[in-house]
Amino acid sequence: MPQPWQDTSLSAEDRAAALLSSMTLEEKLAQLSSVWPGSEAEEGEDVAPLQHEVSEAVDLDGLLPHGLGQLTRPFGTSPVEPAEGAAALARLQTRIAAGNRFGIPALAHEECLTGFFAWRATVFPTPLAWGASFDPALVGRAAELIGGSLRSAGIHQGLAPVLDVVRDARWGRTEESIGEDPYLVATIGTAYVRGLESAGIVATLKHFAGYAASRGGRNHAPVSIGPRELADVVLPPFELAVRDGGARSVMHSYNDIDGVPSAASPWLLTELLRDTWGFTGTVVADYFGVSFLELAHRVADSRGGAAGLALAAGVDVELPAVRCFGTPLRDAVRAGEVDESLVDRAALRVLRQKCELGLLDPDWSPVPPALLGESAESTESTASAEPGSGLDLDPPGMRAVARELAEESVVLLADDGDALPLAPDARIAVVGPLADDPAAMLGCYTFPRHVGVEHPELPLGVEVPTLFAALRAELPGARITHAEGCAAPGPDGYAGETGAVASAGAAALTAESRLAQAARTAADADVCVAVLGDRSGLFGRGTSGEGCDAADLELPGEQGALLDTLVATGTPVVLVLFTGRPYALGRWSRLLAGAVQAFFPGEEGGPAVAWALSGRVNPSGRLPVSVPYASGGQPWTYAQPPLGLRGDASSIDPTPLYPFGHGLSYTSFAWERPEADAAEVPTDGETTVRLTVRNTGDRAGTEVVQLYLHDPVARIARPVSRLIGYARVPLGSGESAEVHFTFHADLASYPLGADGTRVVEPGTLELRLASSSADSGVRHTVPLRLTGPERTVDHRRRMVCEVRVK
Fold it and tell me: Which single residue of 25, 72, 139, 459 could bond 36 by disulfide (Cβ 3.0 to 4.6 Å)?
């Protein structure tokens, strides 16, 4: 007869409570812990902060009699054939369930920021590219596929998306973020959450909260923002993803806010997240984040003290491995220093989630869906299957969506009308250290750049065409030549990190000879495609990525000098950037024939950019972050109050070269004068604005219509303009479509009080229909007046502008 916690006719809450009531303290604590299989065997560089300093050997046999909460990165720690990895995970889960008296398996989590974080899995574009697409529906479809891939291999929880709003592009993790605008981050990020959750995977929002607002753009640095900025910029993406996305997990951030570490903040993790927003899932620690309360923040003097602070704040699970939530927390509970009810609170949440995932069902099987149809015994033999057999993590359908997302994320920054699209019979010089390097496509949270660099003998596992190879395939009638021009970007000179892609001959060239060779190659061409940017890495081993913060926004390494040399040849130069952040391009703004921005576009990025250069794909990406004119004036984003813009009181002009939302097309569009249902709207009402967009060019293209709100007078200093809606409008030549934006007065709310209280006040507003956030991008304005009493709104307010394209 099934035990009460196995009775699927009961609610998950009742089942979890029944199980909890039968557990010892040690068994409860075991559910709050994780182990990181194989991490102790990896002797290379850290892939998590202070990994080798904080990690300790784990006695798995000693832990299993009490049970285990989570398994950390079973695929993303070292290379493993997918079928072999799924079989090994199934065997481990069998061992875990058999090892404790309740038969409870572990919840397995994995990174999934650019796809399933596993060898041979599809590498999707990085989140900054999601933002450039301005396409929540496509991002949601990609997430659903990623979630299905995770689930097929036995993974239950994905550590994504990153909902940090970019505040300083010098921050190394800019590439992991969706953009500098909270509305864009919220809507794109929530779409990703919905997709992942629809596949049965627990989506984990990170990093909660304020991580990207660190001082000086430095990783792990303190955050000194005020409560209004926190409420208006940092929190809305998390709020929407919890409320409308259905996210079932949140990961606390490493930083402190005004001296209070997020991992030790009851206001953040309990009062706001749970009591106000109604979140019912689990809060997990960012890796070693509980230990950092003792070792980095120094707000605790022991492991047990750190565990007590985190648990009281609302952290439910210690990741990636048990260090504080094990024996130190047990001893603190028994000594009366930590109330056991806090352990019960966290354990109940963990067990409830395991119920929801089916891990406590009587018919639970350790064999993942990809291996179903085989007996449990046959999983033993799967480990010796031929490479790649049994579990395809890079099927054509996933590559197709990765390709579509890469294509939509390519931003045409500049075009003089002569060089682009590239002529099919042109002499083309493809110059730059990233032109023939697959790493140019890959961010730091891709398996090849995160783990694969520690295994230089290992193939990438997926096909990643370079731009040089893709252009040769796309333009077979052109004469295409190649020169590297300068050292690959990286902190250690040419290589940049272990296993860098580079030829021995090129490495032997001097800087002067590489520049000279590049100049000759460019001079002998009709057009030069300069391929520059970042090489991603971790903790100083790259120019972009976690722990790879930048001192300024100049192009890394020798690439600026290379671009100067190429421009000086007189050959028209088209700049192509593969980067994890925007870089200052002002000094070349009038010298380039064209410029294309791609943000680590994934395994299909080379062909996607090649097709944009050839014109087969009409670029439709828009900037999710502003591109600065000069490197100074940082940090800066477009949503500034009046004093944050250019003014006579300062000699520094922060006006970007290319603003947020900017992007060109090979066709032209006309926007007809909009109409609104009403010019006056109650402070609790709404109106619909209609705009007709027509493709007036000779080729198909996609316009991205952006809706901004301008509030001329408010009771606190407000951004001059902020995004409140957008729509992708694909049109054939001569076609038109009508775009409907439904504006609710809630979208004009702002945090008036320091406690986050939001108000909608009566008065005059202006809706701006624009092609970018800059004044020059405004096509039409719609005056609007809110009438009636001032309203106070909360987390139940309307946060999204409904959009329809007819």
Answer: 72
